[in-house]
Amino acid sequence: MNNEQTKFPEGFLWGGATAANQIEGGFDEGNKGLNIADVLPGGKERLNILMSSGFNFEIDRENYRYPNHEAIDFYHRYKEDIALFAEMGFKVFRLSIAWTRIFPNGDEQEPNEEGLAFYDRVFDELISYEIEPVVTISHYEMPLHLVKEYGGWRSRQVISFFENYTNVILKRYKDKVKYWMTFNEINGALKMPIMSMGFSPQNEDDRYQETFQAFHYQFIASSLAVKACKDIIPDAKIGCMILFAPVYSYDSNPENVIYALKEEELFNFFCADVHVRGEYPAFIKRFFKEKKIKLDIQDGDLDIIKEGTVDYIGLSYYMSRTDKKEKTQEEKAQGNIVGGVKNPFLKASDWGWEIDPVGLRISLNKLYSRYQLPLFVVENGLGAYDKIEEDGSINDDYRIDYLREHVQAMGEAVEDGVELMGYTSWGCIDLVSMSTGEMSKRYGFIYVDKNDDGSGTLERKKKNSFHWYKKVIESNGEVL
């Protein structure tokens, strides 16, 4: 990108992104109830648990550690952290509300005042520095009671519980929050529904039936939230949030090209089509037929979905996916959570995630061409091992290089004509990894002294990337 020619829009929303279950800690304070993340152990076995069907949703301290329980203690240290975000010049800070801080079990009629008051304090602190909160309503922390008693989003009853929760927080924070999103990475449930839907399919035969029925209930719930937001906070913007990973055909073999096309339609566009267009896309009918999926769609469901379309599209972008119709075990990409085969043109992170900044430009162009709605990159970052030098510095130039290339790709997309609202780098402060529950997989501009074994002082330190990102924001993306 030639920075002398390309400008990010005036008022571009620079900032950082986090999730309640990965930073807050205080898992049993303030009358908070247990959620899915609270019972997921840290370590390499977490990913196997996320992908399996035998998890019992119980805390087992004899065999596992639970890093989310303390996380980085944002619950008590939010003022210190927000001051550091302000020092970097954040325009926005993306965070999520923990559903079980507001409704400990999820199905109560009346909310928990201690939880509501906590977020009041956080929002007030952000606003005192002129940082706009960007709030995700549900980010991988479904109430455990709803999982055990109702089967998670397999139950239609959960729609009304979510609606009650949403209405409470919209009314409470209507004067403090103007940017909202409904479900974090909603399409990610195609890979592992346990985090966002509260269940793992019991067998492969039921997998698609259960998952797409749960999607239907979430679409209704999301649309009801959109409608409520527009009624309660008319000047707010509310969007969906999808995990976007463009799918490349391994080669020009037409069989592989059509395979990649169909995989991309299903993973990247199905949920977005419903959120943005308010109806099920034509391509899904064949998929439902082939997988023998029959949805419980009641009178009025499709009207609700049609009436509750979003204002913008939030997306996470970490990697692309290269794929082919027939592949051997040896060809599969190791570490790429979205699957596929190894791309010979790309390098990978310490965790095997392929690094593809051009893929971000491709993603933004595809989304804007399809929908003509404002886009918001609300997650993007590099998980890496960081080392503290003898002088106390943390020279994470590898992270700067990664982010620079992705910001450049966004600039190219803007030059291409894409309407881009903003960019919030994922894990702007070190946090607990969602996929592995590790602290050693660090994303932040701010180092937190916390280790995988639970030791550490929780002291915050600025990395080199902290000072780099500050210049990026000051220059509105011109100084990279």
Question: What do these coordinates show?
Answer:
With 480 residues, this protein is an alpha/beta fold. It has a single domain, classed as Glycosidases (TIM Barrel). The protein is built from 15 helices and 14 strands. Helix 14 links the parallel strand 11 and strand 12. The termini are close together.
Name given to the CATH architecture: Alpha-Beta Barrel
Strand order of the largest sheet: 1-2-3-4-5-7-11-12
Helix content: 25-40%
Approximate strand percentage = 5-15%
| Structure summary, number of beta strands | 14
Give the uncertain stretches in residue-range form.
Answer: none
The count of domains is: 1
Output the CATH topology. TIM Barrel
CATH superfamily: Glycosidases
* Main sheet overview: 8 strands, parallel, barrel
H-E string:
EHHHEHHEHHEHHEEHHHEEEEHEHEEEH
| CATH domain class name | Alpha Beta
| H/I helix tally | 15
Please state the structural category.
Answer: alpha/beta
Task: Give structural attributes.
single chain, 480 residues, alpha/beta, TIM Barrel, eight-stranded parallel β-barrel, two-stranded parallel sheet, 15 helices, 14 strands, 39% helix, 13% strand
